Amino acid sequence: MSQEIAVIGSPDFTTGFRLAGVRKFENVPEDEKDDALDEAVMRTLEDDDVGIVVMHDDDMAHLSRSAREAVEGSIEPVLVTLGGGAGSGGLREQIKRAIGIDLMEED
Amino acid sequence: MAEDVKPTRKNLMAIEDRIELSERGHDTLEQKRDGLIMEFMDILDQAQDIREDLDANYETAQRKINMARAMEGDVAVRGAAAALKEHPEITTQSKNIMGVVVPQIESSRVRKSLDQRGYGLLGSSARIDEAADAYEELLESIILAAEVETAMKKMLTEIETTKRRVNALEFKLLPDLHENKEYIEQKLEEQEREEIFRLKKIKAKKEEEESEAAATEAESELEVVEVGD
Questions:
Q1: Does residue B92 sit at the A interface (CB-CB below 8 Å)?
Q2: Which of A16, A61, B84, B219 is deepest in the core (most CB within 10 A)?
Q3: In this predicted model, what pLDDT tens digit does every residue of B165-204 receive, in sequence order?
Q4: Is residue A106 part of a domain?
Q5: Residue A67: CATH number of its domain
Q6: Which residues lie in coiled coils (chain B) (predicted)?
Q7: Which uninterrupted H or E stretch holds B91?
Q8: A105 in a domain, yes or no?
Q9: What CA–CA distance (Å, rounded) separates B14 from B204?
Q10: Which of residues 39-58 of B touch A (CB under 8 A)?
Q11: Is A81 helix (H, G, I), strand (E, B) or coil?
C-alpha cells in the first residue's frame, strides 16, 4: 500500500515541504499552537494514508502529554522531528530505558 | 509462596522439570537480548549518520527557502508550493531482524524534474527551483531516517520486553521455584526422619514386649517346674 508524507507545523515550516510535493499538511499558526496542535496531530495519526509525520522539534513542547506520547510511540505513521539533533522525538529516552545507558550522549 | 505447594515427591519432580525448562528459557532469552542489542548498535551507528545528514539538509533547505522568500516574496513561494501536482509516495515492505519485523520504506516521485513540478518555468525563478530541490533532498533523508528510526523503536520495544522476561525469570520465577524445591526437600527429609524415628520406636516397643513376653514365659515355665516337683 502506498502512503504519503504529512507535515505538521507553522505555515513557514510546511511551505517548503509543499514545494517538494507533500500534499498532506496541517498548518497551525504560531499563536494557536497550544490549542490547535494536539488536534492536528491526532487527526494526522488517524489518517491511514500517512506513513511518515514530519514535525519541528520545538513544536513538540506545545503538545499535551497524551498527544506527545501517542505521536512519539507511534510506529505507523512514524514521526521524524527536525531541528532537534540526534535522539529527538523520545528516541533517546527510550534507549536509556531499554539499554540502561545513554548511547546518544554527544561527545 | 513456598507454603502453597504440597510437599510430595510428585510435586518435587514437577518443580524440578519446571526449573530445568525455566533455566533453558532464561539462557535462550538472554542470548536473544544480547543479539538484539548487538543488532541495535549497528543500526544506531547508521542512524546517527543519517541524522547528521538530515540536520544538514534541513539547514540548507531552510536557507534556500528563506532566500527564495526574500527575493521572490512569500506569495510567489506559496503560489509555487500550491501548484505542485506530483506527490511523493512511499511504500513499506518488511524485513525480519531476530524476530522483529522492521519496515523497509521505498519512495517514489520524490525527485522531480523542472517540468514535473507543475508551477511552470516562466512563472517562477531559479531560487524557488533551488528551494524545491533542497526540500526534495530533505524528504529523501527524512524517508531514510523514518526507516531507521522505526526499526530502532521496534527493536527497543523488543529489547525491553526480552529484558523484562529475562529479569522476571532470573529474579522472580527461578528463585521462587528453588525456594519451593528446597521447601519440599526439607519437608520430605523431615518426614523421612519422623518415619525412621517412628520405626525405631515401634521396634523398641516390640522388643520390649517380646522381652516381657519371654520373661513371663520363663516365669510360667519355672512355676510349672516348681509345681511338677
A1: yes
A2: A16
A3: 999 999 999 999 999 999 999 999 999 999 999 999 999 9
A4: no
A5: 3.40.50.10580
A6: 44-71
A7: strand B89-97
A8: no
A9: 38
A10: 40-41, 44, 47-48, 51-52, 54-55, 58
A11: strand
